[in-house]
Amino acid sequence: MSKINFQNVHTMIGADAKIVGPVDLKEGIIIYGQIYGDVTTDGPVRVAQNAVVQGNIIGKHIRIGGTVLGNIHSDGQVILGKKCVLKGDIIYRKLLIEDGALFEGKCDLLNIKESPETSE
Question: CA nearest 105: which of 56, 59, 60?
């Protein structure tokens, strides 16, 4: 299985945390809690198994283990874990969907010249 490097993760949202509003970061984030708003970072994003994100996610590499209700945009790799639920579209460079993942949406391969800012 493919792995994502989470060395540049400087932010963690705990399991008991609930954030309402957008989260904008330069480095990576691991989410164990709930975010009701968009997550935007130049680094990697990991949504843990019991976490919930209700909003769009933009990041370098993205691994979804929990629930995401929103679109995903990655100029790197996207991994949908075996227990994830994703209801939204994916723009990606590399995509891995593990057996058991629930995905409802469409997938588009990232145009090399396209960036998260110009795709909206």
Answer: 56
